[in-house]
Structure formats: structure tokens, C-alpha cells
Specification:
Blueprint (H helix, E strand, L loop, with lengths): L2 H5 L1 E2 L17 H13 L4 H4 L5 H6 L2 E6 L3 E2 L9 E2 L9 H12 L3 E6 L10 H14 L4 E5 L7 H10 L3 E3 L9 H4 L5 H13 L4 E8 L5 H13 L4 E6 L13 E2 L1 H14 L3 E4 L15
Parallel strand pairs: 2-5, 3-4, 5-6, 6-7, 7-8, 8-9, 9-11
Antiparallel strand pairs: 1-10
Helix pairs in contact: 5-6, 6-7, 10-11
């Protein structure tokens, strides 16, 4: 790790640094949406993932929904989603998600999914049908799709491009050197290729995110930002990795707020349209602003 990064990160100890303390979500809008989620048994990543930004995002009318089940065919070392053999595809899911968005009166929805390498289309058909259903039932709602890599198969990516979400996102998650350890079945250059292909095929805004604290150096983070810029990505999110369980990769360091600010400025200097950089930043943080 570089001298600069060492000086601006904190080695893990018992407990987290003070800047990772999260306030309990509050506010009229949050309370209203929480009541609707409980009443209608709606499923959002915000609640199931206990996102630290849930109150802020819900207060601004943004929520994230996961499709294609809750079992992933990949076994990434950082992710808390269970891995194994997924359930069969629920072809009514697009309508269910669209209905949830309508009930919650969501202004900007983020859709994500597990990886479905078990399916011939890798889930891309359900992805497209979900966007179409949301458009039909919620014509005023804007959309971000946080997609898997679909193994880089263009005909699957094309299904997302054809339904034209306002933002299409695909996360790099980490730097090149750590990709094999952190993402296992994913490939750094394949992910960059997906992002570049999306832009070349006319997607207006593309987006990607990385986690810090897995052992990357400052130089590697900056190189990743350069790689994303070369792939014509518009929006970048940078956040702190937190270990979901003892079975997952350990936190190697807690990145300081000053270092996150430095990365944000580097990203802006490189010309990204938006850079969200902070310990509690997650992929969908301030997502509604990224359509501007």
C-alpha cells in the first residue's frame, strides 16, 4: 500500500471508526414508506440490506429493488447475498416490482439483480420486461439499472439498451489486482468492456462503483478511475467495504474522510459528470441526481 494511502487510512480494530456511525432513519417520508413496505410485504434492497442511506434516499423518493431471486450463481468474496442454485424465474416479477413502485410512489427507482449464469439469457429477458412494466405502470418514474456483466454477451446487454433506462450501471467493485480474489468469476477487462459497449451503443449515462478497504493502493484506485474514464463512464461511486460476515473477505483498512474527498476531487478533475465518494456511499447513493 502506498505511503499516502497508509497515512490516510485506519487499520481495523474492534469496532468501526466514528465516521462510520449511522443515524437511524427518520422523517415523515421514511415513516410513510416503511409502513407501506411492511403492509404490502414489498421487497427492497434498502430494507433487506439495511442500507445506511435508506432514510435519506427514501426521503428523496428513491428506492432500490432486486429481481431474479435472492440466490446468486456467483460466490464473490465481498457480497452478503447467498450463493447456490437459484429458484425458477418468476415471470410475474416485472408486474410485482412495477406495482411496488406505484404503491410507494417512487420518483426514481434503481433495479439490480443477482447473477443468473444458470439461464441461457442470463436473466436479461426478465430485466427488459421489468423495465417495460415499470414504464407502463409508472410513466413518470425514472430508472437506473444496475446490471450484472451478462458474461459480456452483447445480445443480452442489447436487451437493456433497447429499453433505454436513464442510467445503466455496472460495478467494477475493486481494482484490477484484487478482482480475482474479490469477484472470483468476474473479469476486470470484461466489466470495462460492458461499460464501454453500453456507451458506444447510445446509453446516455453510464455508471460504475468501487469499494475501498480491501487492500488496494492509492495508485491502483487512481488507475481504476482512469480506466473508467477511458471507457467513457459518466458517474462513479466510491465507498467503504464492510465485511458482511466472518466468512467474507476481511476489511484491510478503513479509509478516512479526507482520502475519500481526495478521490472525489481526482474523479471530478478527470471529467466525470458525478462522483460520490465517502465511507457510507453505496451504488444507489444520490441516484436520483445522476440523471441530471
Amino acid at each position: 500500500m502506498s505511503t499516502e494511502t497508509v497515512s490516510k487510512s485506519v487499520a481495523p480494530k474492534k469496532g468501526k471508526p466514528k465516521w462510520l456511525r449511522v443515524k437511524l432513519p427518520t422523517g415523515k417520508k421514511y415513516t410513510e414508506l416503511r409502513g407501506l413496505v411492511d403492509k404490502y410485504n414489498l421487497h427492497t434492497i434498502c430494507t433487506s440490506g439495511s442500507c445506511p442511506n435508506m432514510g435519506e434516499c427514501w426521503g428523496e423518493g428513491t428506492a432500490t429493488f432486486m429481481i431474479l431471486g435472492n440466490t446468486c450463481t456467483r460466490s464473490c468474496g465481498f457480497c452478503g447475498v447467498k450463493t447456490g442454485r437459484p429458484e425458477t424465474v418468476d415471470w410475474e416479477e416485472p408486474e410485482k416490482v412495477a406495482r411496488s413502485i406505484k404503491i410507494m410512489k417512487i420518483k426514481h427507482a434503481v433495479i439490480t439483480s443477482v447473477d443468473r449464469d444458470d439461464l441461457k439469457d442470463m436473466g436479461s429477458i426478465i430485466w427488459a420486461e421489468t423495465v417495460k412494466a415499470i414504464r407502463r405502470m409508472n410513466p413518470e418514474t425514472t430508472l437506473e439499472t444496475l446490471i450484472p456483466d451478462f458474461q459480456g454477451v452483447e445480445r443480452n446487454i442489447d436487451r437493456i439498451i433497447e429499453v433505454a433506462p436513464e442510467v445503466v450501471s455496472h460495478n467494477m467493485e475493486t481494482v484490477r489486482r484484487l478482482t480475482r480474489e474479490v469477484r472470483i468469476q468476474a473479469k476486470y477487462d470484461r466489466s470495462l468492456g460492458v461499460l464501454k459497449y453500453l456507451k458506444e451503443q447510445g446509453i446516455n449515462r453510464t455508471k460504475s462503483g468501487i469499494m475501498l478497504g480491501l487492500g488496494e493502493t492509492e495508485e491502483e484506485v487512481i488507475q481504476t478511475l482512469h480506466d473508467l474514464k477511458e471507457a467513457q463512464v459518466d458517474i462513479v461511486t466510491i465507498g467503504q467495504y464492510l465485511q458482511p460476515s466472518k466468512k467474507h473477505l476481511p476489511v484491510r483498512s478503513f479509509i478516512t474522510p479526507d482520502q475519500f474527498d481526495k478521490y472525489r476531487q481526482i474523479g471530478l478533475d478527470l471529467g466525470f459528470r458525478h462522483v460520490e465518494s465517502g465511507a457510507l456511499v453505496r451504488s444507489s447513493y444520490k441516484a436520483q441526481k445522476h440523471i441530471e
